[in-house]
């Protein structure tokens, strides 16, 4: 199960379009416990770069036992995340 949450405007418009073409996107919710529950029920969380490569979604996913699919570079970020994330992911059709 792959969780694809609501994407904010900081995500690249083309990238958002690639993701939403093939995925079921959860509706935006202001209820943080529902957001965390959805992540916890997932094996992977789509987590593309926003206005910077690192974001809270990576940490939230790891804390809830889901692996974020990221665009992070293993050479630079392995020290912080280890094997808890999927690195250098650029194919967003889920």
Key terms for this structure?
94 residues; 3-stranded parallel β-sheet; 4 helices; mainly alpha
- Please estimate the helix content: 25-40%
Report the structural category: mainly alpha
Q: Name the beta content range.
A: 5-15%
DSSP helical segment count:
4
Q: Tell me about the biggest sheet? A: 3 strands, parallel
> Low-confidence parts lasting 5 or more residues at pLDDT below 50?
20-24
- Identify the strand order in the major beta sheet: 1-2-3
Structure, explained:
There is one protein chain. This protein is mainly α and 94 residues long. The protein is 35% helix and 9% strand. It contains 4 helices and 3 strands, in the order E-H-H-E-H-E-H. Helix 3 links the parallel strand 2 (44-46) and strand 3.
Concise synopsis of the structure shown:
This protein has 4 helices and 3 strands.
Write the layout of secondary structure elements.
Blueprint (H helix, E strand, L loop, with lengths): L1 E2 L9 H8 L11 H9 L3 E3 L9 H8 L3 E3 L4 H8 L13
Parallel strand pairs: 1-2, 2-3
């Amino acid at each position: 199960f792959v969780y694809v949450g609501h994407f904010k405007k900081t995500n690249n418009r083309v990238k958002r379009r690639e993701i939403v073409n093939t995925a079921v996107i959860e509706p935006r919710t202001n209820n943080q416990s529902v957001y965390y529950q959805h992540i916890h029920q997932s094996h992977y969380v789509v987590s593309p770069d926003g206005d910077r490569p690192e974001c809270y979604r990576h940490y939230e996913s790891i804390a809830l036992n889901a692996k974020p699919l990221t665009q992070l570079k293993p050479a630079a970020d392995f020290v912080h995340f280890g094997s808890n994330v999927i690195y250098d992911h650029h194919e967003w059709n889920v």
